[in-house]
Amino acid sequence: MEKKRFYITTPIYYPSAKLHIGHAYCTTLTDIFARYKRMRGFECYFLTGADEHGQKIEENAKKAGVTPQEFVDNIVEGFHKLWELLYISNDDFIRTTQERHIKTVQQIFSQMLKQEDIYLGKYKGWYCTPCESFWTDTQVGPDHLCPDCGRPVHEAEEEAYFFKTSKYVDRLLKFYDENPKFLLPESRKNEMINTFIKPGLEDLCVSRTSFSWGIPIKENPKHVVYVWLDALTNYISALGYGSDNPELFNKFWQDPECETIHILGADITRFHAIYWPMFLESLGLRKPDRELIHGLLMMRDSKMSKSKGNVVDPYPLVERYGVDAVRYYLVREVTFGQDGSFTPEQFVERSNTDLANSLGNLLNRTVSMINKYFQGIVPSYQGKVTPFDGELESVINVSVKQYENLLDDLKITEAITAAMDIVGRANKYIDETTPWALAKDESKQKDLASVMNHLATALFVAGILLKPVLVTASDKLFAQLGLNPEEVKYEQIYNLSYLGGQTVNKGDQLFPRLDVTIEVPFIQELMGVNK
Description:
6-stranded parallel β-sheet, 4-stranded antiparallel β-sheet
């Protein structure tokens, strides 16, 4: 059964420093899917936000000489600016310091405590401050390093509340079996079972007393709620769970006709794949339909991280190359679900090959030829006139179907590749039909008109399919084809005789070709390669 609406989320990001292109990658992927679903007429609710509590924030604020709230307010302002820069179309932005979230977390904690899913005990273990995670002896190994980030851990002991994971393990494994598409790629599910569940899952620490920057527990205010019960709850607190206005929650979480999708990075899989379904089971709520784990963007053969300082700031990239080139690179260069790398050479090559040479040049040539041969008016559809028209139409139809099937399955990279197949085939079609030769032969005017119509149609369809990625360039493409971007509708791609009679408007190159000798050193400088 096809779902009527969609709820799609990014992780909530930790405001310990400025966001980098790795965060932009995850949020852009999520935005593309939300835009695609809206474009196809579905109701879609898109959430992102900030995870603002914890010891690390408290310590960083103290170093900066400000309160924790002032510290996070300043950094979260940068989040909003970056999402605006990247044309992120989120419907809401949840902050864990907001009253709506705090009330929900306290209510959930009280309910779990009452149900005896949470109990008071003592925690002793190895603690990683940057990750805010406790680990066992086995997990940290003889060198006492955090399994997630590789940094040193220290021994810590304190009174704490615990969530009874043991009560829910069997139900979780049953849920995995009954919902094989819940966690993708599937290798992640195997990792959760073999690495964390089978060796013996310990009860989860869900409160702290060694710092105060967090949500106080009503029943015992010296404790604050520990990060994951606080952070994961954002997905339902943002929808009004437990509030006087649960309309969004009922519509986008509880309604079986809504598909709920979390997009997240590999480093937080354990919390989303194991503990989040358990929390929801405890509350008697449905689980997400799908959790999709994207790969990491690597730099210089290592994970991009704020603490290592090896990050790329998206701002200068967007300012220099435009939002569309950056969004396109993020979705096209790294296959969704796999690790990838950001390199200056790849960025420049992808921009030149796909955007400047293939798409931009096709538009420029097509509009120029329509101006030259037909006084700027797109000829109407003539049917399959040249021997090559049928194959181009077939590629368009097949690519549209592939694009829809792939994107519905969140195979975003492959879907965009299918859209670009139309562009590649249209460029080949020019070489096959040789319109410059047709123009010299009076008897071939119908052929020439058919070629111009087919080229305009190929561009039109590709422009629509690429619109969730190319948020400004697609509208410029439509305008050059003589269309009002606001009147372009998705369903028009199914009508290959739609175009005809429009007056083209030759504009600037959609994507200027980049000079490798200038741009690669510029991006290397941004990355600190030459420092």
